[in-house]
Design goal:
The structure holds two protein chains of two kinds. By secondary structure, chain A is an alpha/beta fold. Chain A has 26 helices and 39 strands. In chain A, helix 7 links the parallel strand 13 (176-180) and strand 14. Chain A is elongated, with a radius of gyration of 31 Å. The termini of chain A are far apart. Chain B has a single domain (8-105), classed as 3-layer Sandwich (Rieske Iron-sulfur Protein), CATH 2.102.10. Chain B contains no helices and nine strands. Chain B has a six-stranded antiparallel β-sheet with strand order 1-9-8-4-3-2, with no helix packed on it. A three-stranded antiparallel β-sheet of chain B has the order 5-6-7, with no helix packed on it. In chain B, strand 3 (30-36) and strand 4 form a beta hairpin. Chain B starts with 7 loop residues before the first strand and ends with a strand. The chains are: A alpha/beta, B mainly beta.
Chain lengths: 817, 109
């Protein structure tokens, strides 16, 4: 008997309803919901749940309902046939059908095997006694909870991540727990000896017992078929009415192996997650990819994305293996590990150890790149280290401060010390007023895994993004370390899977010259993008094809269309440019006149040494611009992702300390750079001496004049979290300052992501990379040339140009009164 | 010009509102935003975001949606409803295109 499927679409069948199978289906639905008639076969009689959160359920810190991911209704709503509570018994490859244990056959055109893994049960006598279990599913949790009510002694065999979580949960349920571990270090696959020792002491203080190194010889029965004790090789017996085996996992490859698919430890797949049969794919813990079987959730999500991309016919993503991180989910004990934490030949180790304070940190550095981390006691920076590892960032410049964490770098985001310690009512996202409690509740109740999910549901970090790091920390601390960390390369927005860098590259390499062309070429999912990708694409095209690409005003934020800052009441603010912050009585008179004429409700001096007129109505903008133009003033671009201001001090012209003409240099810099569109706003400052009155060391590009020349500083900002600049060079002449400034700006324009300021850009690319690019005189000159070429087309005053072409658009279409 | 609620009023020439842009219509009862959406159709909704009153006519238009310029709420031009997870709704108005001109019925749709 064949199970009914819709014949008009290809039939996609998934064996396994665990996290990998369900995630793969979700990813396919995202890309192409109509492509397949999907059937999911799940052995467990539930919908799909979050297996990594079973430990908190056992510890009584959450419930089964909390960890359900997809309910049976979800399958129905998405038109997926869910066959649950039945085991798939065989794959008939010739007949292209899955055979079920109850005799039914499910035909497929494409098949995904997501059978997961099972606990490794030691091959010792007595391993089949009652009360001997693994720790894998809801049934195991039920068994453990029941045993905790009736019995006293439990032995956990295997002191890895899962074993310790199980032991902790059993202890919390009142059992006397002994962990038997084969090695002499706990969690030796994640921790080095030092961290393992500290962990052991801290668990012992809580009452957990350890016997290690020790090998189990036999599980001893009580004569009635139930376990009574665990006997070790040395003859010692440990009483136990419950034995939990957590000595590793075994991929469930049998169904594949019996069907003749090539398997080693797991089902062998290529970089598309395809098995040796091109109609059959495999994903998750049952898989062996490039010799590695993964037992964590993050790699499995990465695999699911690649598989979905392939099955939806996109075919450009490949899976190249995962760098993994883990975090122990034992409340009150913070352990984090990632990458190659053991170090080895050619690797340097940075170590911080505070035995009494219970803190241990080890970072492994190879070739100026962070490749591994072990943290004990203070894991706040785990997410950050993990990001550095995956992005392969050059850390040579921050090496000295690396161990002390991101907060000590003067990073470009919030630098909260420990988000985990914040109260629930602490505001995380200041833009949208979202508190920690709301975010944590949303993560738990709605099963959120990614930054994008949290943004969508709570709006936290959806606006200015400066709290992104905090939200990521909350995700990590709420879900445990193996949460689906946002991929190091994030898609530009929900309309595409391509990253900022991939899009930029495609534009240049394929000569794409308009937004529709880019969207067509890269198969955008939406007909005309969204408010996130359109401005980004417009900028990338503008940057790639100066003079050739025609700016698409419809893809710009209103501020850049109206050349003023929109205020909360819908009026605008107007800022005329004052070169280097210098003005004249005539200019001031003209500003005073327009302020009165157009009813400016407030006149304010800005931080960048300009004058801001507030409360101007949109239809008055063209007229106020005309008046200011007539007085010789142009747009100050105070509203744009563009060169904003060059702030200066009075310098050697007037100041008794001044070493150089900082005002004059500031004006020259501003004349060189005004009008250029950037990935984000860009500010400069020139100080006449090291007293630094122009605050040049918190600017994107700052100059500090000294007697012998000019110090050039980059990557600062005075935003939510102040970041002080890095010194990048010292030069002798104003001409050189201009060349370095132009080259630096061009490098930023060409390689930053849209809406990424110089501070996070430098941290992402590495200061030494930026330095290298600019110190190479030929490259610097080439960058500067490209900048000057692009400026030919950019240095047009929008206040003079806009009214000519678009005056009508500043007025209402009609007034029906 | 005085209008009653159930008559068609000419508000624009089609060429005045290029695809993926919006414009403002001022009325006695406040502003209406007229959009030329990604599907080629014209839509009209109240020009005030249900969140904090942002001028929707100034937002970026994509497909049949507009993103509010103040805090990035996304509103469906057909229904006037905010996209999840935001909740809220603005009034919509009937619009028709006839002979190169856009007409609006103030009575609401």
């Amino acid at each position: 008997m064949n199970v009914h499927t819709k014949p008009d679409r290809e039939r996609l069948v998934v064996i396994g309803n665990g996290m990998a199978g369900a995630r793969a289906v979700e990813e396919i639905l995202k890309l192409d919901p109509a492509r397949y008639a999907i059937t999911v076969i799940g052995e467990e009689p539930y919908g799909n749940y979050n297996r990594i959160l079973l430990s908190p359920v056992l510890a009584g810190e959450s419930t089964i309902d909390d960890i359900m991911l997809n309910t049976p209704e979800w399958y129905e709503e998405n038109g997926i046939e869910l066959i649950s509570g039945v085991r798939a018994s065989a794959i008939d490859r010739a007949g292209r059908a899955v055979e079920l244990a109850d005799g039914r056959r499910v035909p497929y055109d494409r098949l995904i095997i997501a059978t997961g893994s099972r606990p490794f049960i030691l091959p010792v006598p007595g391993n089949d006694l009652d009360g001997v279990i693994g720790f894998r599913d809801i049934a195991d949790v039920d068994t453990m909870l029941e045993a905790a009510e009736k019995y006293r002694h439990a032995v956990v065999i295997g002191g890895g991540l899962l074993g310790l979580e199980a032991a902790n949960g059993l202890m919390k349920n009142g059992m006397d727990v002994t962990v038997v571990h084969l090695m002499d270090t706990l969690m030796e696959r994640q921790l080095d000896r030092e961290a393992g020792e500290m962990l052991r002491r801290s668990l012992e203080e809580r009452g957990m017992k350890f016997v290690m190194p020790a090998k189990t010889a036999e599980i001893v029965g009580d004569g009635n078929g139930r376990v009574r004790a665990v006997r070790l090789e040395d003859g010692a017996e440990i009483p136990a009415e419950l034995v939990v085996m957590t000595a590793g996992i075994v991929p469930n490859k049998e169904i594949a192996e019996e069907a003749g698919l090539y398997c080693e430890r797991g089902i062998v797949v290529n970089d598309y997650l395809m098995t040796y049969d091109p109609r059959i794919y495999a994903v998750g813990e049952c898989v062996q990819h490039r010799g590695v079987c993964y037992g964590l959730v993050a790699p499995l999500y990465e695999q699911a994305r690649v598989l979905a991309n392939h099955l939806a016919g996109r075919g450009w993503m490949t899976y190249e293996g995962s760098v993994t991180s883990t975090k122990l989910k034992v409340t009150g004990i913070d352990v984090f590990s990632a990458g190659n934490f053991l170090g080895g030949d050619g690797a340097d180790e940075l170590v911080l150890k505070d035995e009494k304070g219970g803190v241990y940190k080890k970072l492994v550095i190879e070739n100026d790149r962070l490749t591994g981390a072990v943290l004990y006691g203070d894991t706040v920076d785990g997410t950050w280290y993990f990001q550095l590892i995956r992005e392969g960032s050059d850390v040579s410049e921050i090496r000295g401060r690396l161990l002390f964490g991101q907060a000590h770098l003067g990073d470009s985001g919030h630098g909260e010390d420990s988000v985990a310690n914040l109260p629930d009512d602490a505001e995380i996202c200041g833009c949208n007023g979202v508190c920690k409690g709301e975010i944590v509740a949303a993560i738990k109740e709605q099963g959120l895994f990614t930054l994008e999910d949290v943004r969508k549901v709570t709006k936290a970090s959806a606006s200015c993004g400066s709290c992104t790091g905090l939200v990521e920390q909350l995700l990590a601390s709420t879900l445990g370390g193996d949460y689906s960390a946002a991929p190091s390369e994030k898609p530009l927005c929900g309309c595409t899977d391509y990253t900022h860098d991939q899009v930029r590259q495609a534009i240049v390499e394929n000569g794409l010259k308009s937004i529709p062309e880019v969207m067509k070429f890269l198969e955008w999912r939406t007909p005309n993008g969204c408010a996130t990708c359109r401005p980004a694409l417009n900028y990338y095209l503008l940057c790639a094809w100066p003079g050739e690409y025609e700016d698409d005003l419809r893809s710009r934020f209103i501020n850049e269309r109206a050349h003023g800052n929109i205020q909360k009441d819908g009026t605008y603010s107007v800022v005329p440019r004052m070169w280097g912050g210098v003005t004249t009585p005539d200019e001031l008179r003209a500003i005073a006149e327009v302020a009165e004429k157009y009813g400016a409700r407030e006149v304010k001096v800005t931080g960048g040494q300009r004058i801001d007129l507030f409360g101007i109505r949109k239809e008055d903008l063209p007229n106020i611009w005309r008046d200011l133009n007539a007085a010789g003033m142009v747009s100050g671009h105070a509203y744009g992702k563009a060169l904003r201001t060059v702030k200066t001090c009075v310098g050697s012209e007037w100041c008794r300390f001044g070493t150089q003409d900082s005002t004059g240099l500031g004006i020259r810099l501003e004349k060189l750079t005004w009008g250029s569109w950037m990935p984000h706003k860009f500010k400069m400052g020139v100080s006449g001496c090291p007293r630094n009155c122009a605050e040049a060391t918190i600017k994107d590009f700052g100059v500090v004049c000294v007697d012998s020349g000019y110090e050039l500083h980059v990557g600062g900002n005075g935003g939510i979290k102040v970041r002080v600049t890095d010194l990048i060079a010292k030069v002798g002449t104003e001409e050189e300052v201009l060349e370095w400034a132009g080259a630096f700006i061009q490098l930023y324009r060409e390689t930053a992501h849209y809406l990424e300021r110089t501070a996070p850009w430098i941290e992402r690319k590495g200061l030494s990379w930026v330095k290298e690019q600019l110190e190479d005189a030929e490259n610097r000159k080439a960058l500067f040339e490209r900048f000057r070429f692009s400026q030919q087309f950019a240095q047009r005053d929008p206040w003079a140009e806009m009214p000519e072409r678009h005056e009508d658009e500043f007025k209402p279409l009609v007034e029906l009164v | 010009m005085s209008v009653t609620t159930d008559e068609w009023v000419k508000v624009a020439e089609v060429a005045q509102v290029p695809p993926l842009t919006g414009r403002v219509i001022r009325t006695e009862n406040g502003e209406i935003a007229l959009f030329h959406a990604g599907d080629g159709q014209f839509y009209a909704i109240d020009n005030s975001c249900p969140h904090k009153g942002g001028p929707l006519s100034e937002g970026i238009v994509h497909d049949c949606h507009v993103t509010c310029p103040l805090h990035n709420w996304v509103l469906n031009l057909k229904t006037g409803e905010a996209e999840a997870p935001d909740e809220g709704k603005v009034a919509t108005y009937e619009v028709k295109v006839d002979g190169g001109a856009v007409y609006l019925k103030l009575g609401g749709a």
